[in-house]
Amino acid sequence: MRSSRHGRSNKRLIMKTGFSIGIVLAVSFLIFLNNGKLFSTAAERVKDVSQNAVQQQNKRPLQPTKHKKLDGKPKGKVVYLTFDDGPSSLTGQFLDVLQEHNVKATFFMQGSNLKNTGYQDNVKRAVEEGHYVGAHSMTHDAIKLYDNKQFVPEMLETLHLIRNITGTNPKLTRPPYGSAPGLKGEQIRDQIADAGIKIWDWTIDSYDWKLKDNPSKIVENVKKQTTEDLEVVLMHEKQQTLQVLPEIIEFYKEKGYEFAVYHDEEHFRLNFQKDDRL
Known about the structure:
Layout: H1 2-59, E1 78-86, H2 91-100, E2 106-109, H3 111-114, H4 120-128, E3 132-135, H5 142-147, H6 151-166, E4 172-173, H7 179-182, H8 186-194, E5 198-199, E6 204-205, H9 215-225, E7 230-236, H10 239-254, E8 258-260
Parallel strand pairs: 1-2, 1-7, 1-8, 2-3, 4-5, 6-7
Helix pairs in contact: 9-10
């Protein structure tokens, strides 16, 4: 009897042990499968994050160059093409030429023109295509801006219009007729600095605005004045300028210049008053 009982006891022990081992193996298998799924899911998430990062990077606007001199200016031969007095009926055509030649530019637009809803799509297009849009006052009236001390209010209003149209938050302005002599007084420059506004004049004046009947002279002016590694060319949204723009672009390409576009985060001083705050 003892032997029989002992045998049955051993069988039950073996069965229990086998059952326990089976449970352990089953649980282990499930854990393995689950870990596999977790690993797969984690890998997919990493892949998705990487793909999203690439997509977001591709959507970002062109970033400013990181190669700078001690004064903040870019190294190498660099030219900034700038256009005043827009937007206009010609803005789209200027953008077409720039796009065709893969060149980015900096536009200084006037508030009275920005209010024209017929022009606003091209203002948006300029930003979408990587150009910079800054302010050129509301009225372009020297007496109001300088004699009547309306420079800061007008520029702030113009920048606000640009922000509402494009969703950008620009700080750069170009004083009509230049910062000399308009911004000669320190008091008005104090107001500009307090308002967080930046100023850009130019290194080359194409005089395109008065050369309607002599567009080739515009090109001649640009070529003659190009003497430095860094140049900022003053032009306007004029038909004669549009006509010779491809030739100006080709000239700078042949001279080995890189075309640059302004970025608020990499501002450098370029005002006739030599005021480092602006």
